[in-house]
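The following record pairs a protein chain with its ligand, fe (iii) ion.
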Amino acid sequence: MTTLITNIGELTTNDGPALHDAAVLLDGERIAWVGSATDAPSSAETVDVGGRAVIPGFVDSHSHLVFAGDRAAEFEARMAGQKYAAGGIRSTVAATRAATDDELRARLRGFVDEMRAQGTTTVEIKSGYGLSVADEERLVRLAAEVTPEVTFLGAHVVPVEYAGRSDDYVDLVTGPMLDACAPHAKWIDVFCETGAFTVDQSRRVLEAGVSRGLVPRVHASQLGPGEGVRLAVELGAASVDHGTYLTDADIDALAGSDTVLTLLPGVEFSTRQPYPDARRLIDAGVTVALACDTNPGSSFTSSMPFCIAVAVRDMGMTPAEALRAATVGGAAALRRDDVGRIAPGMRADLVLLRAPTHVHLPYRPGVPLVERVWKDGSPVA
Ligand code: NIG
Ligand code: FE
């Protein structure tokens, strides 16, 4: 079954320069052909998009979607001057432990639908609000119901019952918790930060994950400078995420590596921290991705268009760079070569914008410009 999307005014492919007056042929779950509308092959089904812009589906490579409750009061206090700290995670852990699988599943599916309606066709989801063997196991299991990109983040913070015994908790994470979670996960993550885990503890967690076939990704330099970025590069992590407080040595290490730096503008926005200088990073040769980090504490947005707008407005990215980071950049952060581009053979994940150009994404912040979304060739929004 083929579908021809035609009369595309601007087609961002991430596979060469943008095309104008273009068309894309979808064949089942894949893209079969891309080119000028006048040369397009015929197809039983044709969708004329009236000169609007089409872009690759967003690849949101960092989220925490399996949780209960929210922390609106914490956000309100923060806007009144209070600082964000890692400890807030524990209140979401308590709410999540008290929720049933069905409650968590319903919430999770709601977030995935919310993301799809905003153009996200690939999403990575982390555990990290269970922090016991049974609770982390159910979070990765539930996440695996909606995405293949599941990350075990048992080392998110030390839970209350292990207060003052963080090394014992790392023993649990790297032992029985990893045993229970590894079968459902592809990635291993750790929050390497003051108030969470030290660099030595982080190394233990990541190396244990690697020994079980998981690939590292790291939360680092979110609350202050640290050694997490260099640890991520040293261990060949697919991505290191946040990078709010990068040092020159971090940037040098990233620039000479295959590790993607995933920027999370929703976090700086929602915590009033300084925005990282994406311009400097790109100019230094660092591969950057943009992601939402949807979570109830530091960034409760699920909107990639919003993150693009902030990255352009406050982090020095051009609209084209921000779109690229939100699509093929996210694919690189997830080591996926089948998403993030519109080219023959790629997954048919595309977004039709109610706009003539992708520049409207940052130019019209907060406006719902996503008109239609195809995932694996099927309309999903
Ligand atoms: O990516 N940094 C650690 N984890 C999340 C925040 C989680 C929370 O505050 O609940 C983050 O910002
Ligand atoms: Fe996060």
